[in-house]
Amino acid sequence: MSYYRHIDFHKIAEEEFIDFMVFKHHAFSRQLSDLIVRNISSARQSNPSLLPILDKLLILSAALQSELELLIRQEEDCLIPFISTMLELKSQVGQIHFLKQSISNSSVQKIQREQISISNLLNAIRKVTSSFEPPETADELFKLCYAELRELEANLLQYFQTENTFLFPKLQSLEAEIVSRSDYSGEDSNTSNE
Which pairs with CB-CB distance under 8 Å and at least 24 residues apart come from 25-29? Predict the structure, then answer.
């Protein structure tokens, strides 16, 4: 993600950012986390003296992979469809029929809790790996695992920052705009007060 630090995501349309999320970030994160788990499993065979470290890393990496998949599913199944709906509604002219209630905050908070969980796992991995510094006795596959873990950490942390500083504020602004144009309060207009 360091390749993207010079990009002002505020100048990229929401649709293009969604494509970036799914086709770049999600795909890359899934592939790299799969590769890391496989390589750690293989490194266990060629580094018997380092099994205590590799066993901890395998457990943490598998947990990270699971949490990452949960986060990606939340984004792809809930967040992205919601953003797409908001963008469709935004393009409509005049008043729209939409519940005058903000629902993005709960989705954003759920994703941010997953980000914290993933960050905690990354911190645990960083601690076990002595900040990704392989032992002198490590072979090349072991060193590759550490390099991949470092790359995944950098990618995820930069992506979380991009989501928190660009996507989530943009979503909340978009939703506020839609809610302000809505003619629907959520109450049945045929109900009379008795």
Answer: 25/1, 25/155, 25/159, 26/72, 26/75, 26/76, 28/155, 29/68, 29/72, 29/152, 29/155, 29/156, 29/159
What is residue 98's three-state secondary structure? Answer: strand
Neighbours of 170 (CB within 10 A): 18
Count of H-run helices and E-run strands, the chain: 7, 2
pLDDT of the residue at 144:
97
The residue type at 83: I
Map tokens 């409509």 to a residue: 92
Structure tokens given for 131: 């900040």
| 69-94 confidence digits (pLDDT tens) | 999 999 999 889 888 888 888 887 76
Picking from 66, 151, 185, the residue whose alpha carbon sits closest to that of residue 114 is 66
> What pTM does this model have?
0.85
Q: Which residue has the higher pLDDT, 194 or 48?
A: 48
Residues in CB range of 140: below 8 A, 6 or more apart: none
